[in-house]
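Researcher: Last one for today. Full complex below.
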Amino acid sequence: MIPHLWKEWRDHRAVILGIVALLPPVIFAALLLIPEGTVALPTAGAAIGLAAAAFALGADLVPGEVRRGTLMFLRRLPGGLGAVFAAKAILLVAALVLSTALGFGAASLAETVAGRPAVALDWTYAPEALGAALWIFAVAMWLPRGELAVPATALCLGAFVLPMRLLLEWNPGLKLPASAMDVGRWALAPGALLVAWLSFRGRRFGGAGGSAWRGLAVTLLLFTPAWGYVGHKVSDWRDIDPNDPLFRIRWGYVGDGGRYAFLNATDNPPRPFWGPEHAILVDLGTGEWRQVGDPGDKFYVGASVFGATQSVVAHAVESSDESTFEARKLWENYNDGATGEVFKSGWSHLRIDEVEARRRRPTRTPPAVARMPGLIVLAVLDDGTVIGIRDERAIVRVRNGQEERLFPR
Amino acid sequence: MIEFQGVSKRFGKRVVLDALDFSLTPGVVTVLLGRNGAGKSTLQRLCLGVLKPDAGRVEVCGDDPVRRPRDVRRVVGYVPDKPDVYDWMTPRELLRFLKPQYPTWNGDRAARVAEQLAVPLDTPFKSLSRGEGMKAMLMAALAPDPQLLLLDEPFAGLDPVAREDVLKGVIRAGGQTILCATHDLDVAARIADRVAVLSRGKIVAHGPAEEVVGAGGRAPEKMREILEEAVA
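Model: Here's the assembly. Have a good evening.
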């Protein structure tokens, strides 16, 4: 290993010494020119330092060998490519640390000289920055020229990260647990090193093509769990499962005749992943149910509105303006309380107090039922049958003191 | 020493070696004769395990170079057709870099060869002439006392003096199993104990040098046509 480290140092010392000599004064001068308050200087200095080492060294560690025709020399060494790769990775990580520290130091000095208040280094995006720097090293192995490594890395990471990003964008309100995000962010760097090693090993018998295919395949494998996880969370977010142990009915309404129940429910844990409520329409006669609208849509109790003869449940699909708490513009579907069918749709300005005012008045509950713990009464039918929510988890029918589960079945 | 059985190798659509059978006699200098692009370098690289055959079996010094490259490379010396080490490196630094990788490293032999071939040990490769660079590579290849020495066009671009140095210093020193690839019939006639002619991906002639290329480079009648097609 020592001869390989010596070889790497000797091969790249001009670049490293160039960074050491040029980076601090350049950062010092450049950051002094930036108006106060626009950026946190130490963080900007550290980021510039990291980028300098990644671009100048990481992007050229392997393409440089190809360009100079020395890769063949390394490929035929008895020790194989393992020690060669380890030396390159060690040199790169050391150079990244050194360059980042120099950038930070120069920026801090600029801050002091300018008499600006000291700002602590912001570590928020440190995992992503380190990961991106190492991915440049990995992706560069697939390319004939190091200059292409930065755009190629952006393209590659973009292609693998974008689907997850889009899924999150398309599901506003969906927040992944911070711990899962941290795992993903911190996995970028070791993932890059693994892909880099397997890509470099792909050069054992030849050119960049095999290395690129191998690297891309491993990248795909590495991202698959992340895609799977995000996909699962999105699916969990979008779809509700009444048989999920976490299933809870937050509120419900029973339409005329007691045939349909309009429920707002969730199956997401309360913390740290607070999921949306879902509007589900249940046929109490058959137990069949369906999700209505998108995650976050809710049923509101309506009275007899817009000339409807039956009682109406307003199903608010989307809030277009939540700038004020009191007033919201909602797209409403009006479900017939007796049939469950939507009979009218349209925008509506609803004030929260108006919505509250539309709530059905409390029903007089039979004394025997009122004494049943954990039962929230939703409706008392004409024949005295009570429809209620049992322990927030099920819709039950209570008749003659006997409780029968209607949903979920 | 070297055993090729039905070995094929193609690059894209171009077939370089086509179900090639070949074996090397130990202790002698075998010249692999063929025109540029005939597959001589490919054959040698297959011996080192830096290329993988598409079909067939390669065995070098009793091992498969693809499965056990470390064991093969430790006992095989290789001199490429031009120095492919770092141009900032000096021959002395090259020896220092390579030494830990070879258990059979023989520093005395390296020193002897360096002296014999007058290798400028402390001059970077970028400042060496082609001949000096090739001599330095030869010195590095001989330092581990290899059982087998692969030379890929070692005389290309060498002036007559340097060529003579290499011939005397190494190839005619004797005892070493050498496979020397060249397209030069004269070289083959001068140094070979045995000659193998590679053409269209196959060995088309293989035998004692006098039978293939003849004494003084005048090939026997029956070989002339083969040589003309394979080398001219």
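Residues 2-230 of chain B form a domain with the Rossmann fold fold (CATH 3.40.50.300). Chain B touches chain A through 24 residues (CB under 8 Å).
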